[in-house]
# Entry
Amino acid sequence: MAYRVEYNGEEIELATLDAALNCARNAIANDLDRFDGWAVEHDEDVDDWFVQAVRNGRRVGRTAVITGPGARVIEEWERRVSFVGRTPAEAFAMAADWLERRPEIDVLGDVGWHHTANGHQLRIYFRG
# Structure
């Protein structure tokens, strides 16, 4: 079973979702000169992942698409929690408080940051 990363007309196959996410981030980072973070979305209907750079709270540049193996596989990175605060500090404080109450979570996979109409949204993808 392999994950396929499609970006800028090229395709690469990798064995794990971790490797595919890292490949997508590296391809995007090599393509853009400046960005603040990542937006990573999972479409459960088609079981694809979409990775895009974020600058000043907005998505920029091309989107990398990660297609999963033919059979639906639930991997640990699909666990996600979101925090919305009036300020970035408030969102991070809520996330820190939540993580402090869960010592079994020992690895964070990715952090997504979005400015929305409701405030500042922080998404954390984790294993645990």
